[in-house]
Design a protein that fits this description.
Length: 299
């Protein structure tokens, strides 16, 4: 099976493997080289991941009651060999590999096969380990251990549910309807788990509220969203936030303290989710965009 595996750090530096060999993303000083200096030996930890099964046992109960299951961190491992024409180039390649897999910088894997691509956020656990060079200083084996605090593979792009649903494409003839303006969306989450959402709700709106009617959960802000503002909600664990943003200046107004006490930073359940947006005033024609990423336990 033909595959492409690419690691990209936050600075945009990357290394790409294809099939059994990798296509080196060369910095400026390597532009004149025509051969690929690295061969991929193996990569592990991209499928299996441990799970913490949480059980509860009552007095005199046979067996236990399953409460929840949480996936542990993922630990990918890469091993490849540098092949160079002299010791000087070998040293340059080592330096670049250390820069790409810098443990002070976050990164991500991109794995592509069968016309599908998946991404996995990762952090190197240490500087890459370089084994002994060969006797003439032209090849060297490299190993890299990484950790993925979020163990899920994700879709590479953000899925989107815009407010306006187009009904036609140009050219057209005869009577037509321009589109459907919606205050209720049906979102199908075909992931392997619940996923967080990001919402953009454009004003004006008094006490705007986003509700997952499938679960009954909602997020309500007891504030007035002005005409020149939009509300941005993020329900991602560790990044939960609600802010009002001025459309013209980009200035943010933190309204976290104005969230209704009954609110929940809900996630999309597996399967269909009926997401409704409303307010205490007429918001017919309001623009509300909803974004999410698919999550998978393995690929």
């Amino acid at each position: 099976m033909l595959y492409k595996l690419k690691y990209i750090n936050e600075r945009g530096e990357s290394i790409e493997f294809k099939g059994n060999q990798y296509d080196f993303q060369e910095p400026i000083e390597f532009k004149n080289k025509t051969t690929n200096p690295f061969n991929l030996i193996r990569f592990e930890g991209f499928g299996e991941v441990g799970a913490d099964v949480q059980l509860q046992k009552a007095p005199f109960q046979d067996g236990s009651t399953h409460i929840d299951t949480r996936l542990q961190e993922r630990n990918p491992y890469l091993e490849f060999v540098i092949v160079s024409d002299d010791w000087s180039n070998l040293s340059n390649y080592r330096k670049y590999v250390s820069s790409v897999f810098n443990p002070k910088i976050n990164g991500r894997f991109e794995l592509s096969f069968d016309n599908k691509t998946y991404v996995l956020d990762s952090i190197p656990e240490s500087v890459p380990f370089f084994a002994d060079e060969d006797t003439v200083g032209r090849s060297q084996v490299v190993s890299v251990n990484l950790i993925c605090p979020n163990p899920y593979w994700k879709s590479p792009t953000i899925e989107e549910q815009p407010t306006f649903e187009p009904l036609f494409q140009f050219p057209f003839e005869g009577a037509f309807q321009m589109g459907i303006q919606r205050d209720l969306r049906i979102i199908n989450n075909d992931s392997d788990t619940e996923v967080p959402i990001q919402v953009e709700f454009y004003g004006p709106a008094i006490n705007p509220i986003i509700t997952n009617k499938t679960t009954g959960e909602f997020i309500k802000v007891n504030q007035t969203l002005q005409e020149n503002e939009y509300m941005r909600i993020d329900t991602t664990e560790g990044k939960k936030s609600v802010v009002f943003i001025n459309v013209e200046t980009g200035e943010e107004r933190n309204v976290f303290n104005w969230i209704d006490l009954g609110s929940t930073f809900f996630q999309l359940q597996i399967g269909e989710n009926a997401i409704e947006y409303s307010a205490d005033n007429d918001i017919q024609g309001a623009i509300v965009n909803i974004y999410w990423q698919k999550h998978f336990v393995g690929v």
